[in-house]
Amino acid sequence: MPNARVQAARRAADTLAATLDLEPYRLQRTMPRPSVARPVLHLEDLSVIPFLDGVPGVELYQHRARVRAAEGDLYAAVSAPVEGYDAYCERIGLGHAHFVGAAATKSPLEVAKACANGAAFDELARHARAAGGLVVHPYMANEAVWALAAALHDETGEDVTVIGPPPPVMWVANDKAALSRLVADVLGEASLVRTEIATSAAQAAGYLGEVAGCCGTVGLKRARCASAMGNRVLDSQEVLRRGPDGWRAEVEDFLAETKWDGEEELLVVEWLRGAHSPSTQIWIPPEGMGDPVIDGVYEQLLEHDHGVFFGSRPSKFGPAVDEALAVPSLLVAAALQRLGYVGRCSFDLLLVDTEGAQDVRFSECNGRWGGTSTPMHLVDRLVRGPRPPYRAQDFVHPGLVGARFTDVLATLGEHLYDPATGKGTFILYNVGPLAASGKLDVIALGASPEHADELMQETLPKALGLA
C-alpha cells in the first residue's frame, strides 16, 4: 500500500481517538505482549449483539470457541459440550483443550460475566497462577471480557492480556454508523453507498424519502445488529407513493419491531440488489508488531431479500478484483490498528458494476470472529499446504432433529476429513444446535469451487441418508 495513504489513514484515526475514552483499558494495554507459553482462554460471548437471544440454540454457538483452542488452552461456555465433540476435535488434530463450565447468569449469552463468578472464576485464577498469566481471546472484546481480565489480574497478580480492541474501539468497528464515518474519513464518501445517519425517527423518515427519491431500493438499518437481523429493505417507488406520513409510519414500525432504545443511531441507505457481497478477512496485530494482514477474500452466501448470511467460500473473482477489495480494506484496518484494534476483523463489501468497471463499497465491519473467519481458521489449521477450494455453511435438515453427534460421525464415516491422511471431505463444527434444531456447520473441501458446491449440496445429504 502507498505509505502516504497509510499515514493519512492513521491521521484520521488520531482525530477519532481524541474523542474516545480509552483510559479504563490502560491496564491490559500496558501489560507485556501475550506469550505462547501462557494458556489462552477462548470464549464466545455474544451478549452485546441485539436480537441473538431470539435465535434458536444460539447459546450453544459458544462452543465454536473450541475450534480456536490448541493443546493446553482453555475454552469456556455455560453449557456442556455435545457428547463426542471434544474427542472429535482431538482426533482431527486440534489438541487437548480444557473445558471450563460456567454457571449461566440472567442471559446464557453472557459467557464472560458467567466466568467472572463462582467456581469458573476460581478455576481460571488457578490456571493463571500456575502458568504465570493468562491470555483471553474472545469472540468479541466487549466490556465484560475486559472486566473478566481485570478481575483475574487483580485476583492473581499475574499478567492477563486480551487479544482484542478496547470496547470503544470495538464499537467503532461494529457500529455501522461509526464505521461509515471512519471509511469516509479514510477513503472518501465514494467508498460508501448513499448513507444517511439519523438520531430520531423523524429524521430517519425524512432521509427515507430522500434516498428513495434517488435509488431504486432503500434500506433501513440498525447500527449494531448482525446477520441482517436489523435490516428492512423497501422498494423506493412504494415508499414514494406513501408520502411523508407513510415514511414516518414505516420507520416507527421498524423501530418498534427492532426494539430501538431511542439512543442508537439509525441508517438509511441505498440498497443495491444483485450486487456481489464479498468479505475481506483481516488479522490486526498490535501497533508496532506488524501491519494488518489480509488472510483471505471471500464470497458470502446470502439468502432472502435482506441478505441473511448462511455461509462462505474463497473468492473466485480473480487477482485484480481481490486486490481491489484488499487495498481499501487494509487502509481502514490501518486506521483501526492506530486506534488500538487488535485481533480478528472482517469487512463486508459490495462490488458495484459501474460502466464496466468493478467499484468497491463498504457495507459494514465485523469486529469479531464470525461465520467466515471461524471455518477459514479451522481449514488453515487442519489442511497442509495451500488453502483448498471449500464451501462452509449452515446445514439444516428436519431429519437431523434429535440426532446425536456421535451417530452423525458414524454415518459420515470415511466422508469425514482426516488431516493425518488428507482423505475425506467434510469437517464439522458448531454442532451444539444439532439435536434441538437439526443444524450444524459443515466445511466441504473440494478439488474446485464447483466440486465443493456439489459435495455440500448433493453428496452430504446423501451421505447422511437425507436425500
Widest β-sheet, arrangement of strands: 14-13-10-11-12-15-17-16
Q: Let me know the number of strands.
A: 17
Low-confidence region ranges:
none
- The assigned structural class equals alpha+beta
Please state the CA-atom Rg, rounded to the nearest Å: 22 Å
Percent of residues in beta strands?
15-25%
Sketch the major β-sheet.
Answer: 8 strands, antiparallel
Number of domains: 4
Ends distance: 49 Å
Structure, described:
The protein is of the alpha+beta class. It folds into 4 domains: 23-164, no CATH class; 194-270, ATP-grasp fold, A domain (Dna Ligase, domain 1); 273-366, ATP-grasp fold, B domain (D-amino Acid Aminotransferase, Chain A, domain 1); 383-460. It is 37% helix and 22% strand. It contains 15 helices and 17 strands. The protein has helices spanning 3-17, 26-29, 85-91, 111-115, 118-131, 143-156, 167-174, 176-187, 201-212, 236-257, 319-339, 373-382, 405-412, 434-437, 449-463; strands at 40-43, 74-77, 98-101, 134-138, 160-162, 195-198, 217-222, 231-235, 266-270, 278-284, 293-303, 308-314, 343-354, 357-366, 390-396, 426-429, 439-445. The strands form 3 sheets. Strands 14-13-10-11-12-15-17-16 form an 8-stranded antiparallel beta sheet. Helix 7 (167-174) packs across helix 8 (176-187), helix 8 (176-187) crosses helix 11 and helix 9 (201-212) runs antiparallel to helix 10.
